[in-house]
Amino acid sequence: MTKLKGKIVEARDSNSVDINDSVGASLKHLRKLSGLTQLEMAKRLDVGQAAVSKIEGRGDIHISTLEKFVEALGATLKIDASFPSSAKLALTVKDAFDIIHTDDNQLVFPIFGDDEFKRNRDVVLSIRPQYSEKIISGVKTVELRRRFPIAAPSGTTAYIYSTSPVRAMVGMADIKRVLKMPVKEIWSQFEEVACIEKKAFDQYFEGVENGFALQFENIRSLKTPLPLNELRERFGFEPPQSFLYAKHDLRRALNNEFAVIHH
After folding, report:
1. Are residues 171 and 217 in the same domain?
2. Which ranges of 83-182 does DSSP label H, i.e. alpha helix?
3. Are residues 133 and 222 in the same domain?
4. What is the per-residue pLDDT across 4-57, written as a single tens digit (0 to 9) for each?
5. Is 103 inside a domain boundary?
6. Is the same domain home to 140 and 235?
7. What residues make up the domain containing 212?
8. Could you give the number of structural domains in the chain?
9. Residue 7: inside a domain, yes or no?
10. How far is CA 154 from CA 84, 189, 217, 218, 222, in A?
11. Which of 1, 62, 81, 252 could disulfide-link to 35, CB 3.0 to 4.6 Å?
């Protein structure tokens, strides 16, 4: 049987194909490539053969159904939004974020699926002051996220931006490991070192089954925090809602110009 796990199958739209007819047909094609009959696929999905036939004959498929079908093949569903580099969105973010173009004319933003981690990159994490202080003090060694690239390699530097009212870059840490786990397991395993109340934890992860735990090591603080106004003026920096890839000039400045205190 042809194995699809770990493979990337790129789907492209076509002006000659009605999208209402193409999704189910694409799933049928992937199933056949995997060497599975409809009956075998039905067993994997724990549904009747008629249900598989219905899915493969439709175009308006729920994302949850699409994800289950693809995962039953041993693959992973990922949905991106591709914008031309001249789009208003691209003009808005190109100076604030370290964007990589897929080609000279396109920017891709992930909508659904685990993010791929860009090679040789470090990240900036936006963290509330009550948590960033505990990270810098060495008490909090795990940061929690609803979404983060699972492929982030060990040793990736996480620059810690402390949000309002501090609004400054305050330190950095090495990411030892990124774990994607069921939310219940995250709480049972990291309750103490994540330094978060159960109520706040439940509110943060509401609506998701899995979350991400970033384990920190080699935590150090900046001797002098780098305020937001200077970050903006020198590096075109805007605080991310969750995380962004650190631009080269920002990384160089934080590592060379600003003394750090190791804990």
Report:
1. yes
2. 88-93, 129-136
3. yes
4. 444 444 444 444 444 445 788 889 988 988 889 999 999 999 999 999 999 998
5. yes
6. yes
7. 123-262
8. 3
9. no
10. 33, 20, 10, 12, 22
11. 1
Closest CA to 70 of 157, 235, 62, 192: 62
More confident residue, 23 or 102: 23
Both 169 and 95 in a single domain?
A: no
For residues 244 and 160, what is the distance between their CA atoms, to the nearest angstrom?
11
Asked if the structure places residue 232 within a domain, the reply is: yes
The β-bridge relationship of strands 156-162 and 210-227 is unpaired
Tokens for 253, please give them.
């400045």
Q: Which residues contact 156 (CB under 8 A, 6 or more apart)?
A: 117, 121, 122, 123, 174, 175
CATH number at residue 258: 2.30.130.30
Query: Tens of pLDDT along 195-229?
Result: 999 999 999 999 889 999 999 999 999 988 999 99
**153 DSSP 8-state letter:** P
Q: How many angstroms separate the CA atoms of 256 and 263, rounded?
A: 18
Name the one residue in this structure whose structure tokens are 């002051």: 129
Q: What are the E-state strand segments in 147-189?
A: 156-162, 168-182
**pTM beyond cutoff 0.85:** no
For 3, 144, 175, 180, 250, the CA distances from 211, given in Å and listed in that order, are 27, 7, 16, 6, 28
Same domain, 62 and 85: no
Task: State the average pLDDT for the chain.
Answer: 80
149 plus 100 within the same structural domain: no
Residue whose entry in the numeric block shows the structure tokens 């982030």: 152
